Amino acid sequence: MASTSTSSLMTSKTVVSLFLSSPRTVKNSFLSFTPASPSFKPLRTRSSNATKTDEVTNNILDEDMDQIRRLQNGSDVRGVALEGEKGRTVTLTPAAVEAIAESFGEWVAATESNGNGVIKVSLGRDPRVSGGKLSTAVFAGLARAGCLAFDMGLATTPACFMSTLLPPFEYDASIMMTASHLPYTRNGLKFFTKRGGLTSPEVEKICDLAARKYANRQTKVSTLIRTRPEQVDFMSAYSKHLREIIKERINHPEHYDTPLKGFQIVVNAGNGSGGFFTWDVLDKLGADTFGSLYLNPDGMFPNHIPNPEDKTAMSRTRAAVLENSADLGVVFDTDVDRSGVVDNKGNPINGDKLIALMSAIVLKEHPGSTIVTDARTSMGLTRFITERGGRHCLYRVGYRNVIDKGVELNKDGIETHLMMETSGHGAVKENYFLDDGAYMVVKIIIEMVRMRLAGSKEGIGSLIEDLEEPLESAELRMNILSEPRDAKAKGIEAIETFRQYIEEGKLEGWELDSCGECWVSEGCLVDSNDHPSAIDAHMYRAKVMDKKSGEEYGWVHMRQSIHNPNIALNMQSVLPGGCLSMTSLFRDRFLEASGIARFLDISDIDNYIGSQS
């Protein structure tokens, strides 16, 4: 009997292996698999033990494939790359990374090839300590796919995309290895072609293909590189590109090549990849950068999280600006696709304030432009934009969603020059719709110098002095109490029930918000044009009306996280006690009344109500 079981196990693995490793045929849409030969047939056995063994083997393969699929994080890949996080095991292994890189290379060859021969792919990375061994895995995977790899070394996410466009590099595709502001134990991959960053559905296809590869060969993966990638210094070319933009647009009448002479700008790189902006951009343009913080890359991030939303990052930058009487402070996240600033008076400018600042600058250059943001921005920001002649489009959370919406609006004939998320991700039409934290700072610096040349003694913060801020705001989380594989379905159920309750009038005074001018309806989620974008995560924004006046006093935004098995609840109010009132109504008349609370951990909501009562 034991002999029969062992034989059956080998038979099952052989069948799976033959299916998964069969020759690939490139089709116009993607890659498909064909059997090894027309005569291929699974071997049969009558053993009941064999059937059980087949089930075990299939379960193992399913789990291996799920492990790769769970690494997808919207349009990125992210996972735990090092031991050190309590309760978390390493998921982003060299074997997983190699399979994903190989699959990306094959995807590029199948969808982006221009018929000019070998596909060329660049790789950049932030300073995380896991970057070295995972880079080797990327190069091995690209080699398996027949791609020619180029090693950019320490780089930024925007630079990786620009390496597909700037001559003489002009690679077919690029990968950035980073986990943004997450802890040093994490790492991830971002993907680019000449069209821009990949979408969530595209990354899902790549992860599906990688899952098959990983499940089939995880114990025999080789990360040996037969041909070492060519090392290239792209960051110098990218820095020069930024310097030329600043010089040309300021066009200083006295010192064209050093237009930042007389300005002191403090940069906080947070030990990430952003130090280059100090010595390779600002210093060479004549700026005084004395007082800058944490410029040297250190993958352990010993001083604070490199994140413009981090309070420590902003407070230390503020202190450096005030101590040195600087004109501007700059905060970058790890891979420099996000940024925040501090004005000369020490006022932090991030979130809605940064969107307002960029809106003020863009609307000067492009009057009447539409500004796309995620739907967590304030009512005051909408007024700020409209009072300057702009139009505000509220859209889905997720920087890729916000940017892609701007691209679509332009295609539909609606001039849209700025797309920003409250997290600090921002893109402008003039810069290939690329979310580039350094480019955002470049535009702010240009405006600052222009103001000085025009005779103004005010700092950059004066542009947003009339921005109204909400009186109250809150962000709460509800963990989904289910098996990991069921969490997404449960989250959708909760959020769609929320929509249903509002549409049926069960939450009095609550209405699904909309943005009709930009063809967005149903709580700022659904495109109402003739080519709606696929929904990657469910979410709705409801505006809440005051019973007496009938006017809107706040909003509630409920969304499914694409990162973790939980639901986020954001809200703002212009009335005192408004957030408490909305939270209590949300719990009592929706969560409890609908029964949704049975599979959600609502302790965060209970604690908030208790603390505010």
TrEMBL record:
The organism's place on the tree of life at top rank: Eukaryota
UniProt catalytic activity: alpha-D-glucose 1-phosphate = alpha-D-glucose 6-phosphate; alpha-D-glucose 1,6-bisphosphate + L-seryl-[protein] = O-phospho-L-seryl-[protein] + alpha-D-glucose 6-phosphate; O-phospho-L-seryl-[protein] + alpha-D-glucose 1-phosphate = alpha-D-glucose 1,6-bisphosphate + L-seryl-[protein]
Keyword Phosphoprotein carried by entry: yes
Pfam families in UniProt: PGM_PMM_I, PGM_PMM_II, PGM_PMM_III
Example GO BP: glucose metabolic process
Cofactor: Mg(2+)
Alphabetic keyword roster: Carbohydrate metabolism, Glucose metabolism, Phosphoprotein
Example of a GO MF term: phosphoglucomutase activity
Enzyme class: isomerase
EC number of the protein: 5.4.2.2
UniProt KW Membrane keyword: no
Residue intervals of the Alpha-D-phosphohexomutase alpha/beta/alpha domain: 71-212, 238-346, 350-449
Cellular component annotations (GO), alphabetically ordered: chloroplast stroma
Summary of subunit composition and partner proteins: Monomer.
Family: Belongs to the phosphohexose mutase family.
UniProt name for this protein: phosphoglucomutase (alpha-D-glucose-1,6-bisphosphate-dependent)
Organism: Brassica carinata
